[in-house]
Design a protein that fits this description.
With about 100 residues, the chain is an alpha+beta fold. The protein contains 2 helices and 6 strands; from the N terminus they run E-E-H-E-E-E-H-E. Strands 1-2 form a two-stranded antiparallel ribbon. Strand 3 and strand 4 form a beta hairpin. It is elongated. It starts with a strand and ends in a 9-residue tail after the last strand.
Length: about 100
């Protein structure tokens, strides 16, 4: 597993070979650790986090597309408020 800063206030966590039913628990742990108050000189500092998740299991094999999909999901989570997780859902294709 790998964590990396993408830029600004955006980070990515790459989880390899994780069962889909465990992803929610991992996301809850990440949000819980990020939102825990930090002791700093003169008081406490709190950080908010919104998480977007995309899975390669849904057929996205290209790394750039996977990051874009997670980014879309993150903005959906941000729109819902801090401390939220949103999962990217592939749009249904319409047959002509």
């Amino acid at each position: 597993d790998t964590a990396a800063r993408l830029g600004g206030d955006e980070f990515a966590v790459l989880l390899v070979d994780i069962a889909e039913e465990h992803i929610g628990a991992v996301a809850d742990r990440i949000v819980g650790n990020l939102t825990r108050p930090l002791e700093v000189v003169g008081g406490e500092l709190t950080v908010g986090a919104s998480l977007g998740m995309a899975s390669a299991a849904s057929g996205t094999l290209d790394a750039d597309a996977l990051v874009r999909n997670a980014d879309v999901a993150m903005y959906v989570a941000k729109h819902g408020g801090k401390g939220r997780l949103s999962v990217f859902e592939q749009p249904e294709t319409v047959a002509a």
